[in-house]
Write a structure and sequence with these properties.
Layout (H helix, E strand, L loop, with lengths): L10 H28 L4 H19 L3 H19 L7 H17 L6 H6 L15
Helix pairs in contact: 1-2, 1-4, 2-3, 3-4
């Protein structure tokens, strides 16, 4: 699982990734909830909105970030392709969210995430105890 993540940066880069995760997760959850409330409940749209909400929750928590970011990018790309002819002005927000999701999937979650606790670099102390004198 370690190979899915480039690094788990701490400090300012980790705080920046946390802010991106918070903003992106909140936007995805709001897109999903608004979609549930505004459209007819057929199986395809319900699955799309559930996927968007699930990806947003996973990104907020920082759990399975590469998978959640990739899934959100695919979902938002599908939104762009399906709604391009009907809502030209609203398409660009979905393009932006897809690009941010893909970028977050490539960068990883940062040090302040569940992924960092589960799959982050571990430190092993290989120091030998001192020998006792005979």
């Amino acid at each position: 699982m370690q190979r899915l993540f480039s690094t788990f940066p701490n400090g300012w880069p980790g705080a920046g990734l946390l802010l991106v995760r918070i903003g992106l997760g909140t936007a995805l959850i709001s897109f999903g909830v608004v979609g549930f409330l505004s459209r007819a409940a057929d199986a395809i749209s319900t699955t799309e909105h559930f996927t968007t909400i699930a990806a947003g929750i996973l990104l907020l928590a920082g759990l399975w970030t590469p998978l959640a970011g990739g899934l959100a990018a695919l979902e938002e790309t599908g939104q762009v392709l399906s709604s391009y002819s009907s809502m030209r002005e609203a398409v660009w927000i979905h393009v932006l969210v897809a690009i941010l999701s893909l970028g977050l999937a490539m960068l990883g979650p940062g040090a302040w995430s569940i992924d960092a606790r589960l799959f982050g670099r571990q430190r092993f102390d290989l120091h030998r105890p001192p020998r006792s004198k005979p």
